[in-house]
Amino acid sequence: MSTLAASAKPTGIADEKKFNLYLLQLVGEPFLFARKSYGDELVLNFGELQKAPSRKVRGVEFVYEHGTYRVLSRGSAWLMKSGTRIATNGLMTDLDNDAIPVDKMDFATKPPISVGAVVTGIKPFIVLRSGVDGIGLRVDVSDGSTIVIIPTPEESTEPLLPEVEFHELSDWEVITPSGRIEVGPGRKWSWFEKLSSNAIATGEPGA
Predict the structure, then answer these.
(1) Phi, psi of 118 (to 5 degrees)
(2) DSSP at 10
(3) Residue 47: HSE in the Cβ half-sphere, 13 Å Cα cutoff
(4) Triad 108, 25, 170: Cα angle to 5°
């Protein structure tokens, strides 16, 4: 248990203990598959495979599959690395001469993470760089793989139409069977119980 506790020690995050407890639900869960969503968002699926009821899309039978645990990069840059295999979007990295970048278009079928490898550590950390003062995330997996999510500078939050309500995009999210945690933008976070649209726990700087 001490190993798990040591794997999540951020600084400068409000209500740090509660924040870590929500994230540590992911530790011990096996990796299933990765998926790239809209805007190159990375969706990592862990836990048990779930299948939604089938439906037809343009005349073709479609079944949506997902893990009981998911990590979503949302608007952030991300990197998946295992040995010399790397998949990344928006996160520049210094590569060894022997490193072979993984094509972003095929990492869903050949991700640099072994199927069945379990999460051994999850560590949020403060990111301070040009245009960013937020929370990043590192996930370590038993096959030696590492996933890193880094917030990017916020874009304009002005709605195109003044009368349209604008929903702020989180920097990243973790979904579990009991609910989801939305992190950012900035150093804030919110926890939503399953089937609820209202946050029951939040953390903000100075709170």
Answers:
(1) -105, 155
(2) -
(3) 20
(4) 65
Q: Report the candidate in 26, 24, 42 with the shortest Cα–Cα distance to residue 34.
A: 42
Where b means 16+ CB within 10 Å and e means fewer, 127-152 reads: beeeebbbbbbbbbbbbebebbbbbb
pLDDT (0 to 100) of residue 31 = 96
Helix %, strand %, coil % of the chain (to 5): 10, 45, 45
Chunk the chain into consecutive blocks of 10 residues (it has 207) and report each block's average pLDDT, rounded to whole numbers: 34 78 96 84 94 74 85 91 81 62 69 92 92 94 95 66 63 94 92 72 61
- Return the pLDDT at 37: 80
Residue 13 bridge partners (DSSP): none
Amino acid at 36: K
AA identity, residue 173 = E
Pairing of strands 65-72, 42-51: antiparallel
25, 69 in Cβ contact below 8 A? yes
SS3 call for 149 = strand
The string of DSSP letters for 28-79 reads TPBEEEEEE-GGG-EEEEEEEEEEPPPEEETTEEE--EEEEEEEE-TTSEEE
